[in-house]
Amino acid sequence: KLSADYYNKTCPKFQNIMQTILAEKQLSAPTTAAATLRVFFHDCFVNGCDSSMLIASNAFNKSERDANVNLSVAGDAFDLITRVKTALELECPGVVSCSDILAVSARDLVVMVGGPFYEVVLGRKDSRESNPSIVDKNLPKALTPMNELLSLFSSKGFSAEEMVALVGAHTIGFSHCKEFANRIFNFSKTSEFDPAYNPVFAQGLRKLCANYTKSPAMSAFNDVYTPGKFDNMYYKNLQKGLGLLSSDQAMVTDNRTKPFVDRFAANETAFFDMFARSMEKLSVYKVKENNDGDVRRRCDQFNTLQV
Ligand code: HEM
Ligand SMILES: [Ca+2]
Ligand SMILES: [Ca+2]
């Protein structure tokens, strides 16, 4: 059974060690919080929060990390997990699962950049598989229509309100130009850019991304005003045509999601409450317990090589 005090006896310094390494990493690489939050989401939505997303491909098998949507995930998240895991293996070998490390990292980093605290119960086990072919159908993309976004989240037990709260994670981090290029270049016969954008913002993005095919690393902040702070600015931006992705802007155009955008924009406490509750729920989505999985010795490899 999962519980808050799962490691109290077997690894009493668990929380302290994690805190120290998380703070060090986030201070030296401020993109870590966003990268880790995204990895956590991409892990949980594909077969539950079981670190299937942390496995590296090898000569025999391709893993989830190398599925198309995951190629853009920032390396800082994996580096962070490796550092934490290494420290914990020295302190209490073979005890703390990668899935618990990832869940606690995502929570602590959200708090570190200004977001709400929520309880993360412990005792998740790590998967014995990581299958790139099931990634696509389980994760949303910038161009996924609202009907499909709603049914994807609902198929995993998340309401429209919970979806709108979770996507508030886009209050931090960035997106590569290719994710919104369709909205700023040759959008339609009558307009160069998507008229849903604030025109000054759209022109700025056109300049920023002018060379994106040659420089595919070019990116824009998801939240143009407070990209490093976890706050409700993301929703205020949506109301002003400053939502970066199509899927972001759709949250405020679609009548099924707009009321929640408006509420979270007006009331940060309401956003924080719903985000915390939804993250707590996401953190236990389809988790493996007991013999359903392992405690991996390395987070990027299965304990037994699969050939
Ligand atoms: C409506 C569903 C969603 C869609 C369509 C979506 C799509 C995307 C896309 C296309 C990017 C840019 C990736 C890149 O260019 O590197 C992104 C970034 C990000 N997403 Fe989402 N996302 C969704 C929901 C979520 C949720 C539920 C979370 C977390 C709870 C999340 C967390 C993030 C974070 C933190 C980033 C920034 C990553 C970084 O800076 O390294 N997203 N998302
Ligand atoms: Ca998973
Ligand atoms: Ca923000």
Automatic annotation (TrEMBL):
Superkingdom field: Eukaryota
UniProt GO BP: hydrogen peroxide catabolic process; response to oxidative stress
Keyword RNA-binding on entry: no
One Gene Ontology cellular component: extracellular region
Plant heme peroxidase family profile domain: residues covered: 1-303
Binding site for Ca(2+) 2: 171, 223, 226, 231
Record bears the keyword Transmembrane: no
Keywords, ordered alphabetically: Calcium, Disulfide bond, Heme, Hydrogen peroxide, Iron, Metal-binding, Oxidoreductase, Peroxidase, Secreted, Signal
Positions marked as site (Transition state stabilizer): 38
Protein name according to UniProt: Peroxidase
